[in-house]
Write a structure and sequence with these properties.
The protein has 134 residues and is mainly alpha-helical. 83% of the residues lie in helices and 0% in strands. The chain has one domain. α1 runs antiparallel to α2 and α1 packs parallel to α3.
């Protein structure tokens, strides 16, 4: 009888510990999600300390909860990065187009100058209608 009471007490304590650990993990995860960058580092260190005290199954469950909670933040970060990349690519395309237009305009002006003044360029006969040998 004494053994039965002792085992029942241990099971009750074990289940209470699991519930408390789960509540503590949930509270830590919600605090991590709403924290600033500096606070997040401190809270993550505390979370790691809590993880070290949990069993392997509890640890896996806590890590999965953390990943699930921060996955939405990660997706938002990825979306922001994609938008930044698109903006950069568009800017690079515009810059490249401007450079090509500028080069074309320079060649056109140079060709017109060489056509109007064939005696000025020393190699005017070898490179007709070409400016800067391009």
């Amino acid at each position: 009888m004494k053994t039965l009471k002792l085992s029942a007490t241990l099971m009750l304590l074990g289940s209470l510990t699991l519930c408390m650990a789960e509540a503590n993990v949930d509270a830590q995860i919600s605090a991590i999600k709403s924290a600033t960058a500096q606070e997040r580092v401190k809270l993550m260190n505390e979370f790691k300390a809590t993880l070290s005290t949990l069993s392997e199954e509890e640890r896996e469950a806590a890590i999965q909860k953390l990943r699930a909670g921060t996955l939405a933040d990660g997706e938002q970060t990825k979306d922001r990065e994609r938008v930044r990349d698109r903006v950069r690519v568009n800017q690079m395309d515009e810059i490249q187009e401007r450079q090509e237009n500028q080069k074309m305009n320079q060649n056109q002006v140079g060709s017109q100058f060489m056509q109007q003044n064939p005696g000025i360029a020393p190699d005017a006969g070898t490179t007709p209608n070409r400016f800067m040998n391009r």
